[in-house]
């Protein structure tokens, strides 16, 4: 989970006039401060390299008040010696009240607490009961809490009982780890305020004044999820001349249809620096396919993606992950909108693993009410890549690429469905970049990888499906920023509420099973 966020919030509330808190945050983390409790060991001399003496004393003074308040209460989650009732609305002028807030575990029914202590997830009704009680105490402490206040309290809840509240899928923490509990508590606050115009207006003012949730302060970065987006130097023993030689050798290997995947992988890794220069400079996709033909092949894409993101695209457990999600979707399809796909699964002659991977994406699109036609384009089985009319692709979906170029990333399938199709093609930026994909899981990896390797945002029309793929299959879990294309009228959240809801429901379903 993100430990920098509560530290940053504490710094901003303690020193609101500080323009750039990042140096102080880096200094604290350099000293070994991992959470708010560690701040109690600070001395003034520790801060003088980044703060002026008065600023350091202010920070330590507020810290002392927070510690003094906390010492008045017991440290146990179920402490009954004090409660959040001690923090009255008149303390709202102290914008750090949320750091002092004591979660009223003693008010939670004992049978639920026993479940939490065992690390079991509460049922939906139990979780709502917990949220109802805690939000009630929050509103007693502060009638107009902002999201940053609720987020810190959600962090404390998750830290106290990580097994019960942490957002996890396939063993990977999603986002900050407490986004879903934050979302539910914010919704509860909003529901209680509904109809109270004065309080609603107050909350809008406070939320906008906090700054960190203000959409005007967010800016999209092509570096989302990347650890090596723009390498600064060539690998050891490499020169521009050796890079050029390796590039020409890769072109030759492509022309000769070389199948030595290990040699291709090694050369693609060695030339990653130069590949990124081509991509970042805005080289046309059609030219990239000529200069780096293996970039859009499975081995080349996996290698580039691993260097760029630090994640191995080839997940041997992909079929198992798909099966678990499909099991949940099948149990929860009350409307029957997925019935056609489930029926086709039952009649398919393919092995179970291949079937699960093939229907996983269409089922997700159905679940999120996102149109399959905007991701998959069906063509006749006799159609050659050169015969595809890419010029008409603007209606499939479009994303902003390098702020000026219209780009596409979609799969083309031969057949009536992803399960029936035997071959696939990949289109990026109105260009067929790979016209001979035989395995659907490879088509998914190439399509998803192209969003990152080519600096393409997720189109809004498939944002939830792609983010779920990102977090579930490919284990890319940033808790800040977004890969979704910007919308001037709608704020983009770090983790999609729809994705959070699905992850929570799957987790609850698996606990019941």
What characteristics describe this protein?
513 residues, alpha+beta, 4 domains, 4-stranded mixed β-sheet, two-stranded antiparallel ribbon, 22 helices, 8 strands, 50% helix, globular
Protein architecture, described:
The protein is α+β, with helices and mostly antiparallel strands and 513 residues long. It folds into 4 domains: 1-71; 75-217, no CATH class; 240-309, no CATH class; 369-477, no CATH class. The chain is built from 22 helices and 8 strands. The protein has helices spanning 4-14, 22-30, 44-47, 53-71, 97-100, 110-117, 124-141, 147-160, 162-165, 179-193, 197-210, 240-255, 261-270, 272-280, 285-291, 298-309, 318-332, 339-347, 352-367, 440-453, 463-473, 497-512; strands at 168-169, 172-173, 376-379, 399-401, 405-407, 409-414, 424-428, 431-437.
**Biggest beta-sheet profile:** 4 strands, mixed
Total strand segments: 8
The secondary-structure class comes to alpha+beta
Q: What order do the strands of the largest sheet run in, or round the barrel if closed?
A: 3-6-7-8
Mean pLDDT: 79
Please tell me what the overall shape is.
Answer: globular
Percent helix, as a range, is 40-55%
How far do the termini sit from each other? 27 Å
The ordered H/E elements are HHHHHHHHHEEHHHHHHHHHHEEEEEEHHH
Q: How many domains, in number, for the residues? A: 4
Strand content: 5-15%
Using the CA coordinates, give the radius of gyration: 26 Å
Question: Ranges with pLDDT <50 over ≥5 residues?
Answer: 69-76, 79-93, 197-221, 394-409
Q: Count of DSSP helices?
A: 22
């Amino acid at each position: 989970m993100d430990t920098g966020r509560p530290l940053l919030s504490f710094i901003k509330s303690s020193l609101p006039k500080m323009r750039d808190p990042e140096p102080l945050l880096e200094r604290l983390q350099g000293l070994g401060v991992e959470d708010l409790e560690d701040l109690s060991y600070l001395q003034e001399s520790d801060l003088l390299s980044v703060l002026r003496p008065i600023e350091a004393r202010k920070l330590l003074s507020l810290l002392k008040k927070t510690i003094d308040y906390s010492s008045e209460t017991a440290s146990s989650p179920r402490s009954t010696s004090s409660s959040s009732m001690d923090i009255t609305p008149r303390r709202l002028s102290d914008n750090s009240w949320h750091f002092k807030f004591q979660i009223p575990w003693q008010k939670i029914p004992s049978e639920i607490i026993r479940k939490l202590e065992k690390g079991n997830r509460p049922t939906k009704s139990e979780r709502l009961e917990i949220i109802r009680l805690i939000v009630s105490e929050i509103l007693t402490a502060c009638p107009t809490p902002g999201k940053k206040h609720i987020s810190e309290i959600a962090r404390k809840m998750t830290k106290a009982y990580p097994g019960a509240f942490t957002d996890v899928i396939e063993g990977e923490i999603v986002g900050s780890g407490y986004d879903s509990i934050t979302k539910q508590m914010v919704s509860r606050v909003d529901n209680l305020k509904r109809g109270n115009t004065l309080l609603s207006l107050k909350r809008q003012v406070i939320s906008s004044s906090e700054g960190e949730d203000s959409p005007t302060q967010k800016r999209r970065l092509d570096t989302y999820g990347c650890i090596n987006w723009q390498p600064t130097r060539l690998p050891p023993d490499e020169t521009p001349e050796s890079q050029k030689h390796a590039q020409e050798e890769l072109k030759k290997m492509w022309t000769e249809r070389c199948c030595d995947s290990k040699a291709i992988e090694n050369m693609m890794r060695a030339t990653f620096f130069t590949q990124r220069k081509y991509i970042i400079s805005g080289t046309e996709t059609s030219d990239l396919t000529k200069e780096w033909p293996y970039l859009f092949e499975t081995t080349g894409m996996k290698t580039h993606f691993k260097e760029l993101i630090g994640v191995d695209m080839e997940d041997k457990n992909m079929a198992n992950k798909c099966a678990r999600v499909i099991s949940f979707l099948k149990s929860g399809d009350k409307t029957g909108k997925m019935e056609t796909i489930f029926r086709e699964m039952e009649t398919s002659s393919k092995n179970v693993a291949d079937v699960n991977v093939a229907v996983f994406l269409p089922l997700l699109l159905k679940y999120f009410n996102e149109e399959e036609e905007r991701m998959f384009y069906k063509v006749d089985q006799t159609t050659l890549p050169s015969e595809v009319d890419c010029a008409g692709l603007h209606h499939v979906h479009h994303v902003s690429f390098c702020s000026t170029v219209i780009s596409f990333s979609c799969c083309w399938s031969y057949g009536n469905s992803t399960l029936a199709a035997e071959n696939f093609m990949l289109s990026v930026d109105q260009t067929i970049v790979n016209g001979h994909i035989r395995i659907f899981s490879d088509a998914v990896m190439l399509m998803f990888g192209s969003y990152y390797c080519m600096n393409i945002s997720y189109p809004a029309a498939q944002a939830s499906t792609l983010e779920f793929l990102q977090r579930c299959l490919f284990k890319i879990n940033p808790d800040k920023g977004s890969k979704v294309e910007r919308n001037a009228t709608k704020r983009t959240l770090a983790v999609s509420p729809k994705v959070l809801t699905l992850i929570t429901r799957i987790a609850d379903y698996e606990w019941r099973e």
